[in-house]
């Protein structure tokens, strides 16, 4: 895979400028018009947190709140709080600040690898990535210029509801070759994990009158097993609840050989104007 020279790869979009100890600066591309893409802000915040943690500790979870819409014409400063460095776990908090106000807050936890017994959910039976037709990239959001996506479900309708709410399934991977360090891949997957969760919650409500406004409220990711974000991952999503203008969507990422590598949950605000 060769990254299109017109578009930088995900790793380039997540690069930060160190300002001083615990302070970093980044920029963002558009998500919705003139608004920073939440997945990029969350991934840059995790990049900042990871820069303050020893390499032998790997991210196992992050929890973030989107507080204000970020602007694309101003830089974002990431301030890292070194909350705790324990024997097995390291905790960091990050505030993403723009124009003097916090637009996003992140808590991230890192762990030394440990041996243990295992279990996991079984991967759904789906067509392989090469058996799914690629869509015209011009039809996809701007963030997909750095992501390859193969939609198993109709992007406009999703999959049939089997009693667990609206569903979508997509094969996804980062374009180009990412660095070999694990932090680059978890940050890339954090970016990717924000691409269709809000839309899944909105699927049953797409024909309601009024112009829809979708805003992510919070975002959490748990990383279970090692993976590469530049190799195909199945993104399996379902939204089990929508009420009070808030929809909750859960997603899981599987490798092509069926390993469950990450889980994500997001709450979104859907309003009609």
TrEMBL record:
Pfam families tied to this protein: 4HBT_3 (PF13622), 4HBT_3C (PF20789)
InterPro entries membership: ACOT8-like_C (IPR049450), Acyl-CoA_hotdog (IPR042171), Acyl_CoA_thio (IPR003703), HotDog_dom_sf (IPR029069), TesB_ACOT8-like_N (IPR049449)
Domain Acyl-CoA thioesterase-like C-terminal: 133-269
Domain Acyl-CoA thioesterase-like N-terminal HotDog: start-end pairs: 35-111
UniProt keyword annotations, A-Z: Hydrolase
Superkingdom as given in the UniProt entry: Bacteria
CDD domains in the cross-refs: Thioesterase_II_repeat1, Thioesterase_II_repeat2
PANTHER family named in the record: ACYL-COA THIOESTERASE (PTHR11066), ACYL-COENZYME A THIOESTERASE 8 (PTHR11066:SF34)
Family, per entry: Belongs to the C/M/P thioester hydrolase family.
Protein name: Acyl-CoA thioesterase II
Organism: Amycolatopsis rhabdoformis
């Amino acid at each position: 895979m060769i990254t299109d020279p017109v578009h930088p790869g995900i790793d380039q979009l997540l690069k930060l400028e160190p300002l001083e100890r615990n302070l970093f600066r980044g920029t963002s591309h558009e998500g919705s018009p003139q608004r920073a893409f939440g997945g990029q802000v969350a991934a840059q915040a995790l990049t900042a947190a990871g820069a303050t943690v020893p390499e032998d500790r790997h991210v196992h979870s992050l929890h973030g709140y989107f507080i204000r819409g970020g602007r694309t014409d101003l830089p974002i400063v990431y301030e890292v709080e070194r909350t705790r460095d324990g024997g097995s776990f390291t905790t960091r908090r990050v505030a993403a600040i723009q124009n003097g106000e916090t637009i996003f807050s992140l808590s991230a936890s890192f762990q030394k690898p440990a041996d243990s017994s295992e279990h996991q959910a079984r991967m759904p039976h789906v067509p392989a990535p090469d058996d799914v037709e690629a869509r015209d990239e011009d039809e996809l959001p701007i963030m997909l210029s750095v992501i390859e996506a193969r939609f198993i479900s109709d992007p406009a309708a999703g999959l049939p509801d089997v009693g667990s709410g609206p569903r979508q399934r997509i094969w996804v991977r980062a374009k180009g070759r990412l660095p070999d360090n694990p932090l680059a891949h978890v940050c890339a997957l954090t970016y990717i994990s924000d691409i269709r969760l809000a839309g899944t919650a909105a699927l049953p409500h797409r024909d309601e009158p009024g112009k829809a406004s979708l805003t992510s409220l919070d975002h959490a990711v748990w990383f279970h097993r090692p993976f590469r974000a530049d190799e195909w991952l199945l993104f399996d999503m379902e939204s089990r609840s929508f009420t009070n203008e808030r929809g909750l969507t859960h997603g899981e990422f599987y490798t092509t050989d069926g390993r469950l590598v990450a889980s994500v949950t997001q709450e979104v605000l859907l309003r009609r104007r």
